[in-house]
Write a structure and sequence with these properties.
By secondary structure, this protein is an alpha/beta fold. The chain is 42% helix and 17% strand. A hairpin with a 2-residue loop joins β16 and β17.
Amino acid sequence: MSEDEKDPARKVITDYAQAHFRYFRTADGTVYAQKNGHPVARPIRSQGTTGSHRQELMVGLFRDGIGVFNGSALKEALDLIEALALSEDVQPVHIRVAPGFDGATWLDLGRDDGQSVRIHPTGWDVLTPDPREVCWRRTQLTGELPVPVKDTDGKGIDLLMRLCNFATAETECLAIAWLIGCLGPSVPVPAPFLTGPQGAGKSTGGRMLVRIIEGMTGDLRRAPKDEENLIAAVAAGWVTALDNLSHMTPDLSDAMCCIVTGAESVKRALFTDGDVFRVGYRRPLLLTGIDVGVIRPDLAERLLPLRLERPRVRRTEDELWTEYAQVLPVVLGSLLDLTVKVRAVEAETPTDLRMADFAHLCAQLDAATGLGALAAYRASLDDLNDDVIEGDLLAQTVLEHAASMAAGAEERMTSTQWLHCLSRLYAGEELRALPKGWPTTGKVLSDRLKRLQPTLAARGVIIDSGRTKEGRYIELNRLAPPAHEQEAAF
């Protein structure tokens, strides 16, 4: 055959690629390649070290005897494939956990053969998912999980609790509820904050919880210095674990709120003037530390404090992690068994808690096991409210003013009038200097009170605002205590 009769290299590559791979796009327009019959998808423009589609295509062409092609031919072929794929149906890609058909959910085991766990209403199975049902995305943070063991009768959960140093049974049941929540692709879960004295094993306990979901390569990380790096780390994995937090900046606090309940970041695409790319994320988050100082009210509603205690008997790292690796298949199997059991139970959803999905999960866990997770969750939120109040002088002053009001009474003033009232109350007869960070204008006070609304409401003080012909106002209402509390006072 003459040179003129040969197919161009780009056509040879394109024909081979379309015969061996399935190409599709996500909602943001990114084109992915999926080897026929395999659930793992790779972006065709990826240049990462975890194995790009370009590398995958080059290896396939070489091993199948088609040939070795230069970069120009590969680029032309991939450009054409990308353009053709933009007209294909949209399908999402998932990291670690994904929704499936018929109410099932999937857990990626991170294996080369694509085997995953399908959790369905009647049990769970280890299968290779249909690529059109689930498309897994892998990154360097995607570790391999062992094949879980079936019919564990809860033995794995007991083994896990024996290795961790949780201080109380209430703490243990909250940790279990969080792990079950991590297996739900659409359930926002509060961020566990592992606290305790030095030597309580907070970092070790955090790693143990994370590695149940992320495999033995899952680890804790230092908090990034800026939000952009934090978002990049969050988007590349499922569970994000930050170690040894000693303080919480307002920016980091706001970023954590977004991670827990979900947000989207939009940035300019590289090498373009007007194009952008979107990064949506909602991930389970885990924190460790002795104390982070003042906690902002919006983050407090999204935290799950888990207290640890110092162990009586110390063990070497090698001994501890060797045992953990041995029991991990049983631990994972027990967690899956319990997840199926909990999801099958009907329970009423509490309507007074911010993280309603997690509160409902706690109620289901209680109905299935009788552990008392919902009561423990409420108690943990009360403790966090106390922490917020203890760290906020404005909240303390508002509660002091409310204590002087009759039960059920209301007071309505402008924000400036409230500022003068609360400032005089704080200064007192000794005319104390107002502390650093005290509101300086009525607008600043109004914004601070809005942020404190949930915390104050938990203490029976309702802050509301409105407008009349005379202008805007802020109303403070001290609720009457419940009837059973009034009876207990006599």
